[in-house]
Design a protein that fits this description.
The complex is a heterodimer of chains A (52) and B (730). In chain A, 60% of the residues lie in helices and 0% in strands. Chain A has 2 helices and no strands. Chain B contains 27 helices and 26 strands. By secondary structure, chain B is of the alpha+beta class. Among the domains of chain B are: 81 residues, Alpha-Beta Plaits, CATH 3.30.70; 86 residues, Calcium-transporting ATPase, cytoplasmic transduction domain A (Distorted Sandwich), CATH 2.70.150.10; 148 residues, HAD superfamily/HAD-like (Rossmann fold, 3-Layer(aba) Sandwich), CATH 3.40.50.1000; 103 residues, Calcium-transporting ATPase, cytoplasmic domain N (3-Layer(aba) Sandwich). In chain B, the strands form 5 sheets. Chain B has a 7-stranded mixed beta sheet, with helices on both faces. A 6-stranded antiparallel beta sheet of chain B has the order 6-5-7-13-8-11, with no helix packed on it. The chains are: A mainly alpha (52), B alpha+beta (730).
Amino acid sequence: MNILVYLIPISLLLGGVGLLGFIYTIRSNQYDDPEGDSRRILSDEWDDHPKP
Amino acid sequence: MADVARAPVSACPACSAAPAAEALAERRAAVRDARITLSLPTIHCSACISKVERALNAHPGVRDARVNLTLKRAQVDAEPHVTAQELIATLDAIGYEAHELDPGTIAATQTDKAGRDLLMRLAVAGFAAMNVMLLSISVWSGAEGPTRDMFHWISAAITLPTIAFSGQPFYRSAWAALRHGQLNMDVPITLAIVLAVVTSLWETSLSGEHAYFDAALALTFFLLAGRYLDHRTRAIARSAAEELAALEVPRAFVIRDGDEVQVPVAELAVGDIVAVRPGGRMPVDGEIVEGTSELDRSLLTGETVPVFAGPGQAISAGEVNLTGPLRVRATAVGSDTSLHRMADLVAVAESGRSRYTSLADRAAKLYAPGVHILSALSFVGWFLYTWDVRTALNIAAAVLIITCPCALGLAVPAVTTAASGRLFKRGMLIKHSTALERLAAVDTVVLDKTGTLTEGTPELTNLGDHARTDLEVALALAEASSHPLARALTQAVREAGIAPAEVTGVTEMPGYGTSGRWQGREVRLGRASWVGAAQGATQTAAWLSVAGEAPRAFTFTDRLRPGAEEAVQALTEAGKRVILISGDSSAAVEALARRLGIDHWLAEALPEDKLARVEQLAQEGRYVLMVGDGLNDTAALAAAHVSISPASALDAARVASDIVLLGGDLSPVAQALDTARSAIRRIRENFRIATVYNIVAVPLAVAGLATPLIAALAMSASSITVSLNALRLR
């Protein structure tokens, strides 16, 4: 059972990384235009260089 | 339940309105020259996005443009000299329809802070609930001794900060209710969460067997999910309603030093001379100083016949100038205008509406004290039986957790989300949170005439009565004018395949009509008095006179709104009492009532009469649905049990009504009543399902047999059944 000493912190850490990622997406307005974003990714307009 | 939280007994509507007005003023100041927002109703694809953005970015002076496809809007960051009109023209050139949105009104929907905040709390609660649930499963499957204690301590370490962060909306609303000496759904929720965490901590410190950390977190998670759903439904409706309001950018043309200057309506002052172009709406109350024209007052009074306007005449804000340019000296601006005086009537009428308690509130009123008493009784009972505070407290906590309104918290929002989404697809916007419930109770429908059952645009009725030459002359004269009657005449005659006669020297006399010369004779088309006809008919008419001949009348009726007949028919068939109330003349109202088969009608009604009639119906115990669009309907809209206004209605009427009809079609009204009724049926079913779970689980809890496992099962199972039941809504 000693393995729990490693496994529990690791699982919490990984979950926490996911949570932080989600909070980051909320904070950077990534849910403001879900429809538009899903189409923008298909456009080849800024494929060569990022939008200035 | 979520409603309980957000609507803390507003005794005076003005109290909550005042801060909103301040916030609006602040936003207006902040966005003065920063950004232009355009509404793009026709964009739909990825090619549209890049085309629009490329066109806007290529426009000189534009720094950055970004399209939001979900909201169908474009945000443009541009230098101050760039105007929205230029950009609209640019987009028009590449084939996209665009409208300017008032940035002050629309700013509220840009960043939905409250929604983001709830989503964040929901995410944290969900994360913590998953982890604690995993730890709990090992405890339930037989972890013992130090392992169990360790799991409990880790759970506690995750739970405490999460509960402190995610549960805040409940604590705040519970505190607000308690401070006013009231109970709402959030009081038992808060008590259950706090009690569960405290007893679990105590148990854990004594190496006990039962800890309810997972239950406290699951409770928070499910309830936040309900609250988030509820918030989203309302945010979508609010955003669409704000877009409607923002489409009317309040600007006026003021004469300063001989020039016309465009200023926001808010900056107008008494004594300013305001220029109002044909087709424009009066921004102020005032007196005409220059020009003659005709005024359309249908939105204010329900009259369909345009009124003559000349110098010296008083006008009120909201009237539409039809034919000639006018200059008006402002006598009252902003909130002093007659448009806003109506607000008093509305405020009085609204105080009646706030007495309505939603289903959720009624459930909470029964539920909250019951839960507390039950939990307290089991504590006292077990304490007297065992003289052990720990056991008694444990059981009291179990009772609170099991009875806690997880499913109840989802019962209403899940159904209203589904129903509002369905109605939105049919073109109805549910603005008020309890509108669906109130709609379901409706048994009487009061309809306004002008602008609601009819479109407010005239239609020629006696085309066949006229000689071809008369029609040719009339067409030639009518084409020179932009008056609604002239345009209706032009359209009807053109459709009959008739070409205009050769009339020379056609001039428009604003407020009177058009005149010209035909075969050497003077011809006139216009008001009865001007062409020399006796004003006898009560019908809307334009008269044609050819010198030396008797004047001939072209009569008009108001065109029916599409779906009006179907709506009235469906409502009558559904056994509703349909009543027509209008400010228009008896003849016009009676004709329409006959045509639609409405037995009860009331004509020449003042706004007060409409209000009185609606209130009288309410006193007779009827639940009235008011459908109206004009300023004269506003008070009645606010007084009715529930109200609908079309999107073309005046801003004030849209604000006063609970539901806005987005399309021009009236037929969804009858369907909406059905949807509302089935939604309420689902809500009641959901309450029943939740009650059944409680009836099964509560005796176990009171008997002290409930384990954290049973609590978790009951809670999740009831929440999931309730959500699935909501999705069955058709």
